[in-house]
Amino acid sequence: MRSVQVVAPDDTRWTVRVVWEPRWRALARRFGGWRRKRKNNRDGSSGDVVDGALRIGDAATSGSGGSGGGSDGFDLGDAIIVIVLVFFALIAAAALFWWVLLPLLLIAIDLMIVLVLLVVTLVGRVLFRRPWTVEATAVNGERTIAEVVGWRAALRRRDELAESLRLGHRPVDVLTPAR
Fold it and tell me: What is the mean pLDDT of each run of 10 residues along the chain (179 residues)?
């Protein structure tokens, strides 16, 4: 939502807005522990993808392979060509999935989650009559807030507060001080 910028007669700049963000302090206190915890690799590996691939490659080359010298109708050159073509087809399919299909799928899922959360939030605010927060913040750090039930009432309160600040009234006269 658009913030309203106001300059009071004493040259104090104020920003008046209807706050959309949730109360993060309350959420962090309630659910806590959002920081990622470090994993300790107990097997001595670095956790890198290349490290795992090297271990697989070492295991493959350490085995002894013996093949008979018989010919069963296929030439060694034909088999290599087929293996190379299959390998490149798998690489192309994996690249297509990784760089095109997976990002598109994730974007679609993200958009659906955002839309569902937006609808649930708006319905929750309307049904439970949760108040909107109107906040006036000065450049010097002074801040006051008021809670107003109803979106249109919050926008009216924002405009009224901006006008009263423009006329020189202190925000304490209009709003309850911040806790």
Answer: 87 90 60 53 52 55 52 76 95 96 97 95 85 90 88 92 89 54
> Who's near 163: CB < 8 A, 6+ residues apart?
none
Question: Could you tell me the two tokens for 77?
Answer: 């050159």
DSSP H stretches of helix in the chain: 24-31, 49-62, 76-96, 102-128, 151-166, 171-174
- Look up tokens 């920081």; give the residue: 35
Inter-CA distances, 36 with 24, 32, 33, 41, 92, Å? 17, 11, 8, 15, 34
Looking only at Cα atoms, what is the longest distance across the chain? 99
Contact 174, 14 (CB under 8 A): no
Rg of the Cα atoms in the chain = 32
User: Which strand (E) or helix (H) includes residue 19?
Assistant: strand 13-19
Please name which of 2, 1, 14 lies closest in space to residue 164, comparing C-alpha atoms.
14
